[in-house]
Amino acid sequence: MEGIPVRRTNASAQTSRWSALAVLCAGQLMVILDGTIVNVALPSIQRDLGFSPSDLAWVVNAYLVPFGGLLLLSGRLGDLIGRKRVFIAGLSIFTTASLLCGVSQDPAMLLAARFVQGIGGAVTSAVTLGMVVTLFPQPKERAKAIGVYSFVQSAGGSMGLLAGGALTQTISWHWIFFVNVPIGIVAALSAGRVLASEHGVRFGKGTDVVGALLVTSALMLSVYTIVETTNYGWTSAHTLSFGAAALALLLAFVARQAKATHPLLPLRLFRSRNVSGAMGIQALMVAGMFSFQFLCVLYLQKVLGFDEIHTGLGIFPVSVAIGALSLGLSPKLIARFGPRAVLLPGLSLITAGLAALGRVPAGGSYVVDVLPALLPLGIGFGLAMPSLATLAMSAATPQDSGIASGMFNTMQQIGSAFGLAVLSTLATSHTEALLGEGASTASALTGGYQLAFGIGSGLVAVALLLAATLLRSPATAQRSAAEEKPVAESAAR
Predict the structure, then answer these.
(1) Which stretch of DSSP H or E encloses residue 301?
(2) What value does the mean pLDDT take over residues 305-312?
(3) What residue ranges are annotated as transmembrane (predicted)?
(4) How far is it, in rounded angstroms, from Cα 143 to Cα 386?
(5) Domains defined along the chain, listed by start
(6) CA dihedral (365, 369, 372, 376) positive or negative
(7) Does 145 have pLDDT greater than 50?
(8) What does pTM read for this prediction?
(9) Span between the terminal Cα atoms of the chain, in Å
(10) Are 354 and 284 in contact (CB under 8 A)?
(11) pLDDT by residue (tens digit) across 452-462?
(12) Would you give the distance in Å from CA 147 to the centre of its chain?
């Protein structure tokens, strides 16, 4: 079966598929962990390497810019030359860059290594979801596999906080990078053994090089513009000029894709309301959730006085809830009722959880004020993430699964960068205003976090509204697709 990246044996094709899934998720988990494990170690990195406060943010941004910019191109490369090749290449780049990050002795070396690490992370992540959906063509098995993938995607960030705190406090910040090396080596060797080679659709078939340059430039410039708003502001000449340039490049890319014989991103993927809707909802949900992933950590540390390890433990119930839903109940519910029906209560719970965090007091208690909000967040995300992944990949053919996977991850990165920039800026501004009015430090910080949590809740509420009005049930979507198929085939002829 073309497009299913697993070596079939007479012994057990079923075991081979799940072994391949384990390898794919191990590589993805390593990349996801790195997205949050670094945040906990930033103060130690600053003290050790002498970063200035303004430059310290680039320990994160140097990774985010290439990661967000290269996901789409990397996904298409997987379709062209084979997803196995791209996955192993990404793991190799990421692992090597992790070693260089760990041995860095000055800011310049660390930032350069982080940039290369972002490239490796993008190349690895872009093709993973596409390989998962082609490995499991049957709906029930696919729902289970996407549940496992979604658990890795969503819970990995919370696990990174715990791992980062433990490694930084017990050994040193260098080990948050060194730990990737053995994992990356084992994952790459295992991928070479359990994933079957693919030929892809070949470069010679009218590869859209200009489109690749346009979209990569547009996405990298977009991420750079968003992350730099914390320094320049949203209405500054810097932000407006770079944002306009990114938009112009993106529009040029879309125009080219509409005319290209062999487009990098086939626009027909977005004819499905479920696919295009899932992409937008994903960005909004992740943007809102970043108020939890980033600012809840700050509330625990700066207001409640938690250290790194206790902060990771405090967030860990979210990972437990996500795991319980993603790995157990969600796949069964999606197979039984469809992804839309599971997505709606998931988004509702996330909205309620963020709204509850928006009421945490300055003299709050973790058990009374924080934990009751974290549980609906974990349950909601465990329901929503597999549902969105299923919807986003619903119209992808085996030949397009790489680009669809890359697009889904791109929307996640754009959403997270936007959410972090907007919510952290608003929280900081409101905190400074409260301090100017004479509020205590704890009260001012809490007020800023409350505002950000409330706005995050509002973003997810918008995502919920879109999901309720835009998405359709599987039966309706399939009937519509069947009606559109003859038209599409006629146009292709």
Answers:
(1) none
(2) 79
(3) 21-44, 56-74, 86-105, 111-136, 148-167, 173-196, 208-227, 233-254, 275-300, 312-329, 341-361, 373-393, 414-431, 451-471
(4) 8
(5) 13-207+262-474 (1.20.1250.20), 208-261 (no CATH)
(6) negative
(7) yes
(8) 0.77
(9) 25
(10) no
(11) 999 999 999 99
(12) 15
Q: Which residues contact 94 (CB under 8 A, 6 or more apart)?
A: 30, 31, 117, 120, 121, 123, 124, 180, 184
CA 471 to chain centre: 21
Type of residue found at 385 = M
Tokens (6 digits) for 378: 């974990």
Counting Cα atoms < 13 Å in the Cβ hemisphere of 14 gives: 2
Structure tokens at 249: 């490049």
Determine the longest span between alpha carbons in the chain, in angstroms.
74
How far is Cα 350 from Cα 357, in angstroms, rounded to an integer? 11
Q: Which residues contact 479 (CB under 8 A, 6 or more apart)?
A: none
Q: What is the pLDDT of residue 204?
A: 53
- CA dihedral angle for residue 245, residue 250, residue 254, residue 259, rounded to 10 degrees: 50
pLDDT at residue 325, rounded to an integer: 82
Residue 478 φ then ψ, to 5°: -65, -40
Amino acid, single-letter form, for residue 72:
L
Q: Is the pLDDT of residue 137 over 90?
A: no
The DSSP string of 424-443 is HHHHHHHHHHHHHTT--HHH
| Comparison of pLDDT for 360 and 200, the residue scoring more | 360
Tokens of 248: 């112009």
